[in-house]
Here is the input.
Amino acid sequence: MEEYVTDAVVLTKEPTGEYDTRYVLFTERFGKIAAKAKSSRRITSKLAGHLEPGTLAKVRFIDKGSAQVVDALKSSRRDISPEDLKLLSDLLPDMQVDVELWSDLARQAFSWNSVLRTLGWDPRGAHCEICGRKAAWFFVSRQEFLCDSCVSKMGKSKLSYIRTAPSVIPAKAGIQEARDKA
Here is the structure.
């Protein structure tokens, strides 16, 4: 049984069993890991407030075949939506350290374009995998870029896509919005 201590950003949490929780953490020393916390949903749990999604914490865990969180101390909160944290969890490979990505998350400099670029999918100059037009979305489960038109035809939940280009507002709509505000 080995014991480890590392800084981690909590990506997701889900209940398991009656009182336990399964956490997915992006750690400074180990990359993305899944770890179980026993009795973390009990009222008297010392872990409950320290391991919410988006939290940066010092985490101590043991490895006895699988990782188990023993202790955690929250240091700060990252301003990243739970949906973005879930997509990031889906996108990151297990147990691969990424110093640049860790640095961005630890400094609270999260942006999807930067994350995708760091992971090897540079949105600058990316083209739609279906039609070849300029890409505006990254489809996480298929790990490919798509344009606005092809995404609208896919008919799937927007929770599977990351917007990589700013929304295009037609010129007339922008003029009308300016008049409405005046």
